Description:
By secondary structure, the protein is mainly beta. Among the domains are: 36-112, no CATH class; 158-196, Ribbon (Laminin). Helices cover 7% and strands 40% of the residues. The chain contains 3 helices and 18 strands. The chain has helices at residues 74-79, 115-118, 160-163, and strands at 10-14, 17-20, 24-25, 31-32, 46-50, 53-57, 62-64, 70-72, 85-88, 91-94, 101-103, 110-112, 127-132, 135-140, 144-149, 152-157, 172-177, 180-185. Strands 1-2 form a two-stranded antiparallel ribbon. A two-stranded antiparallel sheet has the order 3-4. Strands 5-6 form a two-stranded antiparallel sheet. Strand 13 and strand 14 form a beta hairpin. The chain starts with 9 loop residues before the first strand and ends in a 12-residue tail after the last strand. The model has no long low-confidence stretch (mean pLDDT 86).
Amino acid sequence: AICGHGCKYGECMGPNKCKCFPGFTGKTCNQDLNECGLKPRPCEHRCMNTHGSYKCYCLNGYMLMPDGTCASSRTCAMVNCQYGCEEVKGEVQCLCPSGGLQLGHNGRTCIDIDECSTGKAVCSYNRRCVNTFGSYYCKCQLGYELKYVSGHYDCVDVNECVTNTHSCNLHAECLNTEGSFKCKCKQGYRGNGFDCT
Length: 197
């Protein structure tokens, strides 16, 4: 089976037919599936969509059970957690629905961990980190675009001279470089390539 456009988060099952891994959708399995919008709803109370998955959490006063349901808990109601809680050895602990969130100083509300600035994020050399609430994703560096090349997705240099997205002067030549471009004034003109006289 050959899939010309590839299957980003899935496998090729027939001519241009992808079978997506759980949590992903689209013709090339390149889109995150928002499980929180599915019917029946996967969580009893509240749902947080994550990349390729989802997390359940409960309203205040309820405790998250292993099957995603929420059980009423007098102790949880007393602690007043933002995203529900769990009881461990008789002690009540507030929960955060994602590993990219951490309990704040009050022990009840969840604050975002900026994986990009703390160095927890792992992005390949030509990708940059973009922080989101509770997570992060890797985006192509400026001057690069995501393309399907020889069996996998990669960040490929954008040729600004061909796509006409350069800012060279009318009397200058555009020279493509890796991730960027340069401008050089044509013969008979003088300047930095952006201004030629």
